[in-house]
Amino acid sequence: MVSIPYLDKADLGPLADAAASWKALPAKYDALQREFEQRVINHLKGHWEGDAAEAAFVTMGKARTEYENAATEAERIAKLLLDAHGEFAASQKQLHALLDEARNDHYKVYDDGRVEDVDPRQDSPTASASPGLAEERKKKLDSLVSRLTRVLELATAADEAASSALERDANGDSQSFNTSVYTTLDSVEADQAAALMNKKGRLSDAEITKLNLLLSANKNDPEFSRDFAVKTGGENMLSKYNELMSPPAGTTLSKEQLAQLKELKANLGTTIGTATTSDDGGKPNKDITDFQNDLLKAGQRDFNANPTESPYGLSGYQLTSSLMSEGKWDKDFLHDYGDALITAEKNGANAGQNPDAYWGYPRTLGTTNIGALDPMTGFMDALGHNPDASTEFLTSGATIDGEKVDHLDYLLKDRHWPEGPGYTGDSGNPSGYNNLGHALESATSGRSFDDDGAPVKHTAERAALMNHVVDTIGGDPGLASDSPRDALRDSLGNMTAEYMADVQGAIANEQGTIKPFGADANLDMGTLEPFIATVGRDPDAYVAITEASQANTAIWMQQVADGNPSDLNAAMENVTYPGGVVAGILSDSRDQAIFEEHSASDKDFNDAVATGDKWAGRGLGMAVGAATGTAAPIVGTVAGWAVEDIQAMVVEQVQQDTTDEAKREAATKYAEGWNAAGESSASSVREAIAHSGRQMSQEDLDVLAGSVEQAAKSGHTAGTAWNSSVNGR
């Protein structure tokens, strides 16, 4: 690995000079060739004949070819050196920026790559007075270490590739100029990585380290990924991956070796995903199309790394899906793959009702336990990382043996999902419904399920899918209530938070103030309320929905305050009431989870609040985006009201609403939730008026706050009463 001091102090000037010199050579060789032709060949033509002349002209013709070859090689070496200089310069610039950042943030970077926090506040009373300081500093330190490692990996891969390319003799000897030398580091590194994947026999630890370095440095590079995939081949890719992840019985792997293999899975999956998208937006690449078809065909065969130990291996679908859980994959390929996977299940697993037997025993993951026996889980996570693909797939169907199969209905209603970490590859979430939830989040939001970036405006297709999900689960709450389907709830909660403007608008939007963020999901109250009631029993879903609801209410209050409604009190009540209804439904749902379903405790709900204010901020972003007509990230202030202040207020309100002890009287708990809904709305309207520039007497402000508080309490009462009546309490 290239060291920090070496990259920091490296003088790249001589390399740039060498590249410039080689770049100038082709013109000089061309000039020499023309001079040779004019002064020698052309001068002799017509003046020299005979056998000796013929032999001489043949030799001179070869010399002319050598001039051309020399110019070609010089041009290619110049390109290679320029590419190397560009890679080294970019890495050096990134390193300098990171070192400056570290110094400015009071971190010390050692020559061996270690990073130490030397912030003087760590030893001061400030640290103990700010519990979040240590966590914040640790996150920054981890980020610095990760980015420093990445820069060094890139520089190392480029250094080794440049060295290999410059030492290469394409013709196998030194009798003539090379005419097929490398011109880019990508091509060198792709050849090196493909050679390792094509090697016969198991790779050594050093070779796995080398492969990891090459893939990690280039996994998001379309040119490298395409060349690597094509040179390796789909079937051979799966065979070598299976071999690496399934060492012979009795093999003992160290923690370091196991970590290397897990890293390889992530790097290889991301690289292959990038390869499948390498021709997106341009002319289709036949080689990549052939590679994708190779992967699809390979899904139908078994791969056995240790046939002398067991007659059974993993299927190509299991291996491909394992890799699919990483990276961005081509939309059309994912669609074709999903159809092929469902077809395989429908034809071989009792119409999808017994995938445990179809994908499970006697198949095993091997001693590394990397991957998942149920390939549908990896495919769902692939959709979860590819929004366009998930939206298209989950809103469409296929015809299998003459039967029309709706993708979402099959996955949500018809398919039996095998349970256990061996099937999901995740000991923390042993239900495949959790992975289905990831795909649904992606499909309805337009973002990867684990992306905390700026919100994306809802398209008509995504909004319609949200409507369909709400109607399906709201019409049959058991789909998200019975185990293991309850693993869907946290994702469904995120989706509800994502569409909070649509939720509140469906509850009460008489004046049309509450606007959707993009296309309207047109949610129906008949299915929306049971949907929220069922989903809200999950602590994480409860917090996401509550935070988003209160954030939306705060923003719509600000919109009303900034406007000029004919009846300010009525307008404020209109945007307040829906949030109260949501709070009421959730309060009753929470009690059901604790006292009746026994699926959660007060501590679970409180712990969920402590995870942060993601949906407070995201809810604000979408609400402001809907209000202002822009999907841009929300930073700074909104109409003079700092987003950070709103976030702090919303999270504090949620915390106050979730601190009930489990054994308190129901009446007491109801009163506290009812009061919290009113008080938070009253606080929000006072903030909105304060930042709107409106001139209002204290008396009028108190009347407005009281009116809003009552609207929120009325909504809370309505929501609780409805939920209780539906559940027969």
Give structural notes.
There is one protein chain. This protein is mainly α. The chain is 67% helix and 3% strand. It is built from 30 helices and eight strands. The protein has a two-stranded antiparallel ribbon. It has a two-stranded antiparallel sheet with strand order 3-4. A two-stranded antiparallel sheet has the order 5-6. Strand 5 (397-400) and strand 6 (403-406) form a beta hairpin. Residues 631-637 have low confidence and may be disordered.
Features:
729 residues, 67% helix, 30 helices, mainly alpha, two-stranded antiparallel sheet, 8 strands
The largest pleated sheet is described as: 2 strands, antiparallel
Instruction: Report the C-alpha radius of gyration, rounded.
Output: 32 Å
> pLDDT below 50 for ≥5 consecutive residues: which ranges?
631-637
- What proportion strand? under 5%
Sum up the overall morphology in one term.
globular
Question: Average pLDDT value?
Answer: 83
Concise synopsis of the structure shown:
This protein has 729 residues and is mainly alpha-helical.
Chain-wise SSE layout:
Elements: H1 4-9, H2 13-44, H3 51-104, E1 107-109, E2 115-117, H4 125-129, H5 131-167, H6 185-198, H7 205-218, H8 222-232, H9 234-245, H10 255-276, H11 286-298, E3 302-303, E4 314-315, H12 316-324, H13 331-348, H14 355-359, H15 375-385, H16 387-394, E5 397-400, E6 403-406, H17 407-414, H18 421-424, H19 432-445, H20 460-475, H21 489-498, H22 500-507, H23 525-535, H24 539-562, H25 568-596, H26 602-609, H27 614-628, E7 637-638, E8 641-642, H28 643-657, H29 666-690, H30 698-726
Antiparallel strand pairs: 1-2, 3-4, 5-6, 7-8
Helix pairs in contact: 2-3, 3-5, 5-6, 5-7, 6-7, 6-8, 7-10, 8-10, 12-15, 13-15, 13-16, 15-16, 15-19, 16-19, 19-21, 20-23, 21-24, 22-25, 23-25, 24-25, 24-26, 24-27, 24-28, 24-29, 25-29, 25-30, 28-29, 29-30
